[in-house]
Specification:
The protein has 667 residues and is an all-alpha fold. The chain has helices at residues 2-26, 39-43, 56-68, 85-90, 96-105, 107-110, 121-126, 138-141, 145-159, 168-187, 198-220, 227-246, 267-271, 278-291, 295-312, 314-329, 331-352, 355-383, 391-413, 417-436, 453-486, 492-528, 536-556, 562-580, 600-617, 625-628, 651-666, and strands spanning 46-49, 52-55, 73-74, 93-94, 114-117, 135-137. Strand 1 and strand 2 (52-55) form a beta hairpin.
Length: 667
């Protein structure tokens, strides 16, 4: 029986890791869309938006995230809130690209979709909408559009660009107004909304150009001319001027990509040149075919246009295909699930102390780290930038750095602390990044002050590694306090080992924070003409360095011991979170580009939680369960043959339930 248990415990960690790896690989392929239209190939078409080439798939996903907060749309005639739990699970969904195509070509159908999310109760009351719902269709909002615009104008006059002066109601209403305008732009991107055959209209426009040119020539020569010919073209031009102004993605490529790589235009902008280029005809045919439900014509036009693009714009076509692959790959979303699984197995090891549980946790954490790393490298390839360019990418990189350091600690100490801490930070930072992505495109062009690869690769990366190190030290301190106060399995060996880990990580954090701050000053001197300007972000970086120095000196001077070190590192979490996120929420200074008002309540909650942990760390030892129990009576590692895995049988059930709700939250 013991030999069978040994074999079972040896291969289970590998099986779990291989199953999760197969799950990741299985999701790499394009998700099959149940449609006669070749949606997957349309999703790869390159366009210009936010200063960069991206596929239609990214345009669709980012737009839908801004409007609805999720990347899919439920295909239901009932509001989501009226569906039961099991009914909701059965409702089919529409992909982001399908929704984009429908909105561009079948606006009447798109207006029925529940894609507008409204969270503010005062906004709901203003529009006389049900307070118990969050998702609404454009048809439900149509009567309130004028009121929203009126209120938005009032708010803009009062606050201008000072968003920090706006009340929660005003912020919610401005968000809705932005969403409505964005939706209107999408509806008028490929063709004027509620139009018939756009191809027939353009043929009429094309036929009117020659008579209008002749009439204009006669008018300039003072001869008799047909004014109706001129007026007809002017009517067309006014219509296309509107399309040029509000069209969302720039879908028409330039004539010469080498001389004018950023010369992409909207369909309306292209038509203002009084000529119809081949790409315009291609999109007109695609739009008409989808609007009239003719998949054969749609697919044929798509193949023809993609062949034309591949011949004239091979780099842009390749970029669109690669980014679409990355969107389906979803390395960071999948990493969340695997990190969570690793965290659960690591926690189970602390309660069971069976070595196979720790090995399973380590294998899963390494798998998630590989996935996490591949996502970072892929983003760097797509952007042509170092890994940190905005708050979203900084959250991704902070998590990655902390996981790497945590796995290194686990390699040396092999007691589960490193892998559990690393997995927890991985989950938290990637969830933070996912919520930051709700603001729109995470790969958009950088502000001019940031648009220097050398300093992005030095200052930003180095100081972000300092953030990661500080959070890892704080997370280790959290584990130490929780295990010591709430459980009896913090052994004397672990109670001595964890502070040594924290001390080493803190030294690492001090070095990187200090060097990163100095490099930032050099960058500021070149970009803004001064080394230091007491900007809030600069002060935050300096605050981290000062706090690291205070903690190290307190430890060196014997003013604090193990528990004191833990308490000060927990306060370091507050300092770092303020320096990373808090200063951006002030809305002032040269670093206010990362403003995230919605994260304020979570930052306060996180800081309050750290205060609670600090209070626990300062409790007298008699209240620490691990120190009130004799060492001899504490549970010992059972080894391969004596493990008692009965409690671990609950792990798959807990994991499945946790993953289900996680996917509901982030999908």
């Amino acid at each position: 029986m013991k030999n069978e248990e040994k074999k079972w415990q040896k291969w289970v960690p590998w099986v779990v890791a291989i199953v999760m790896a197969l799950w990741v690989i299985g999701g790499v392929k394009d998700k099959k869309v149940k449609s006669e239209f070749n949606i997957n190939e349309f999703a790869k078409l390159p366009v210009l938006l936010n200063g960069r080439i991206q596929p239609m798939d990214s345009v669709a996903r980012n737009t839908l995230l801004v409007l609805r907060g999720k990347g899919t749309v439920l295909l239901t005639d009932k509001p989501q809130e009226e569906l039961g739990f099991f009914d909701l699970a059965k409702v089919p969904t529409m992909s982001a690209t399908e929704w984009l195509l429908e909105t561009m070509t079948r606006p009447t159908e798109a207006d029925k979709r529940y894609i507008f999310r409204i969270d503010n109760g005062e906004v709901l009351a203003l529009l006389k909408l049900p307070a118990e719902r969050k998702y609404f269709s454009f048809n439900e909002l149509r009567d309130g559009v004028d009121e929203v615009e009126t209120q938005a104008d009032r708010i803009l006059k009062r606050t201008k660009d000072k968003e920090e002066l706006r009340t929660p109601f005003e912020k919610g209403l401005m968000k809705l107004q932005f969403g409505l305008n964005l939706y209107f732009r999408v509806k008028n991107s490929l063709r004027p909304q509620n139009t018939g055959s756009f191809a027939d209209e353009l043929q009429g426009f094309q036929a009117s150009l020659a008579p209008a040119a002749a009439a204009l020539k006669q008018k300039e020569a003072g001869q008799q001319h047909n004014e109706q010919d001129l007026q007809l073209v002017m009517q067309y031009m006014e219509r296309y001027k509107m399309l040029a102004k509000i069209g969302y993605p720039m879908v028409i490529p330039p004539e010469d990509p080498k001389e004018n790589p950023d010369g992409w235009m909207t369909i309306g902008g292209s038509l203002m040149d009084a000529r119809i280029e081949p790409p315009v005809w291609a999109y007109v045919k695609l739009g008409d075919a989808y609007a009239e439900n003719q998949p054969g014509d749609f697919n044929a036009s798509l193949v023809e246009y993609k062949n034309w693009l591949a011949h004239n714009f091979p780099k842009q076509v390749s970029k669109g295909a690669q980014e679409t692959f990355f969107n389906h790959y979803e390395p960071f979303v999948k990493s969340i699930s695997i990190y969570l699984l690793a965290f659960l197995f690591g926690c189970a090891f602390w309660f069971n102390l069976a070595p196979w549980l720790r090995r399973t946790s380590v294998y899963l954490a390494l798998l998630a780290l590989i996935l996490h790393t591949s996502g970072l490298i892929f983003r760097m390839h797509l952007e042509g930038r170092p890994p940190v360019t905005n708050l979203y990418s900084s959250a991704i990189f902070v998590g990655w750095g902390a996981v790497v350091l945590g796995c290194m600690l686990e390699r040396f100490w092999q007691d589960g602390i490193g892998v559990v801490t690393a997995s927890a930070i991985g989950v938290i930072t990637l969830i933070i990044a996912h919520n930051l992505a709700l603001g729109g495109d995470t790969m958009e062009m950088l502000r001019a002050v940031l648009d220097t690869n050398f300093w992005l690769a030095t200052h930003v990366v180095v100081i972000t590694l300092g953030y990661a190190s500080m959070f890892l030290a704080g997370a280790l301190a959290t584990k130490y306090v929780l295990r010591g106060v709430l459980t009896t399995n913090l052994s004397q060996k672990a109670a001595k080992a964890v502070p040594r880990m924290v001390y080493g990580i803190l030294c690492f954090a001090t070095l990187f924070s200090f060097v990163g701050t100095i490099l930032g000053g050099i960058w500021a001197d070149q970009s803004w003409g001064r080394f230091w300007g007491w900007d809030p972000k600069e002060n935050g970086a300096l605050l981290i360095v000062i706090w690291c120095a205070v903690v190290l000196h307190a430890r060196w001077g014997g003013m604090i011991r193990e528990r004191g070190l833990m308490a000060m590192c927990l306060f370091g979490n507050i300092v770092t979170s303020f320096s990373w996120f808090g200063v951006n929420m002030l809305g002032v200074g040269l670093h206010s580009y990362g403003f995230m008002d919605q994260a304020f309540k979570w930052l306060v909650f996180y800081d309050c939680l750290q205060v609670v942990f600090i209070g626990m760390a300062l409790l007298p030892l008699r209240y620490w369960r691990s120190f009130s129990v004799p060492e001899a009576s504490k549970p010992k590692p059972a080894g391969l043959s004596g493990a008692k895995p009965a409690a671990a049988y609950l792990i798959p059930i807990v994991v499945l339930i946790g993953l289900y709700f996680l996917f509901q939250a982030v999908s």
